[in-house]
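Continuing the batch. This is chain 6 of the set; chains 1 through 5 are on the previous pages. Same settings as before, nothing changed between runs. Recording input and output for traceability.
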Amino acid sequence: MAESVVLDPVDLRLLGLLQNDARMTYRDLAAQVGVAPSTCLDRVARLRRSGVILGHRLKLDPAKLGRGLQALLSVQVRPHRRELVGPFVERIRALPESLTVFHLTGPDDYLIHVAVADMADLQRLVLDGFTSRREVARVETRLIFQQWDCGPLLPPSPSAQTG
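Output for chain 6:
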């Protein structure tokens, strides 16, 4: 398990603001937090070096890219052995429809968030990309009607850890 990093209130405020708008200038960020721009730059650089900030991503609208149908695929793999995990995950990650892959505990081994053009495309993906594979024992599909982003993600408050 990764070690947590000690964050002060300024760090927490910076992280909250950057999660809502990673394109904020250091000048605007510093003004909202109440520190000098050079201090803000140093703090964000430290958060990157320590691994708290992992990167910046561009968020796209799948529907506007011709992928208006999203689904979650629960996949059971048999046999579920270490030598199959890496190659299976890399194959799934290489599929253009795959958005996120989770390796799970419980009856399903993987949960895969996909975006496809339509039901026919989803059927093609399930049949050709998953159930045709020898190691895939079962696939269960759930359509996503709507999704919401949450956050920002910050460390638990001390009261949440003790209560």
